[in-house]
Amino acid sequence: MSTASSSKKLVVAGALGVVGRAVVERFAERTNVEVVGLARRLADFAPRVMWVSADLRDPEATRRALEPHRDATHLVYAALNEQPDLVQGWRDAGNAALNTQMLQHTLEAFDGAPLQHVSLLQGTKAYGVHTGRPMRVPAREQDALRDHTNFYFDQQDLVEQHAQRSGFAWTAWRPQIVLGVALGSAMNPVAALGVYAAIQRERGLPLQPVGHPQLLTECTDARLIAEAIEWSWDRVQAHGRAFNIANGDVILWSTLWPRLAQLFGMALGEPSEERLRDVMPAQATLWRHLTEREGLRVPDLDALMGLSWQYAEATFAARRPLPVPPIVSTVQLRQAGFPACIDTEECIIEHLQTMQAQRYLPR
Predict the structure, then answer these.
(1) What Å distances lie between residue 159 and 95, 121, 201, 348, CA to CA?
(2) Does residue 176 sit in helix, strand or coil?
(3) Sign of torsion, CA 19 241 238 342?
(4) Which of 73, 215, 261, 308 is 20 to 30 A distant from 103 in Cα terms?
């Protein structure tokens, strides 16, 4: 088992996603952690990191990509394959099988390697939040439902099998709606909020709230997940377990809009019935002109947003609340000794300001 100060080699699979990027950024400047970022696309941050392009769907390509890094001591698996219809894909058996195969290819590439710990990302779909059935509130880790199509459990079983054979420890994480910075992510509500506000302002319109006014939920800062992952490495009480992780508060999305309007210097308008997934992609030309004028880094709206307009419709822009608010218990994580928390509204504003500072969003 490593110590907190010993040298580590960390491979982050899915390093350009919201969680993966936060993990990379946490360790990129550490002198005692060598970071390898695994992704299909080119990275535009963390130049000191060793970036490796690999398609985890291809077992041979995965093996070749990871062969030079078989001395890795830690793996954070945050890779994800989503379908073009995001929400429908969550219930697709073929997509679930593919995601499990991607993890299997990764673990097989590390067979015989000196891995000490594997971190696996899951989420509240473990409790069937995406099936339309009422979730138990608060959902505790033992409330996970294995009666629906979901690769979380197949992946967790796979990690456990490899751990028993290879001797590494593992921890699975079940965050709520993840907040952070990423480009082209399938599930980035921060980017959706910021780009929506910027486009409305560019069109000369007020910021019109979208979504049902009673959407109550929890969120999880990606930086908090990265902190918890590091915490878990050398905590025996965190090994071989799944943990819910959330910021520590709740958010009613409708209360965020005044703060968002203030950040972008806009008037707050009347609620809108527009569906962002339908109307925002049509603003691609406007966005390109805006980025050219303001010197922003990503003029291609699709490249910036990925499937996040669809995700917005399942989160802050949803037309109706879920049968019960999707709230989880984080008591198990606190009892294990991880105390960190963050105010969700402040977290969103911080990430939007970061996207402005990094010239992904206009000020």
Answers:
(1) 19, 12, 47, 32
(2) coil
(3) positive
(4) 308
228-251 residue pLDDT tens = 999 999 999 999 999 999 999 999
For 90, the token pair is 């969550």
DSSP letter at 218 equals: -
Residue-wise pLDDT tens digits, 9-28: 999 999 999 999 999 999 99
Give whole-number Cα distances, 298 to 184, 196, 281, 287, in Å. Answer: 10, 15, 14, 9
Task: Tell me: do 151 and 275 sit in the same domain.
Answer: no
**Is 335 domain-assigned?**
no
Q: Are 274 and 348 found together in one domain?
A: yes
Q: Are residues 317 and 214 in the same domain?
A: yes
- Tell me the helix, strand and coil percentages in the chain, rounded to 5: 40, 15, 45
Provide the number of structural domains found in the chain: 2
pTM attached to this predicted model: 0.97
Q: What is the CA radius of gyration of the chain?
A: 20
CA distances from 95 to 86, 88, 165, 186 (A): 11, 10, 27, 14
Q: Which residues contact 348 (CB under 8 A, 6 or more apart)?
A: 179, 190, 193, 219, 256, 259
145 within 8 A of 126, measured Cβ to Cβ: yes
Q: How far is CA 92 from CA 41, 53, 149, in A?
A: 24, 26, 7
The boundaries of the domain holding residue 30 are 8-178+221-245
Asked which of 229, 245, 261 is the last residue of a domain, the reply is: 245
Alpha helices in 110-202 (DSSP H): 151-166, 189-202
Note whether 223 and 234 are within 8 A (CB). no
> What residue type is assigned to position 335 of the chain?
Q
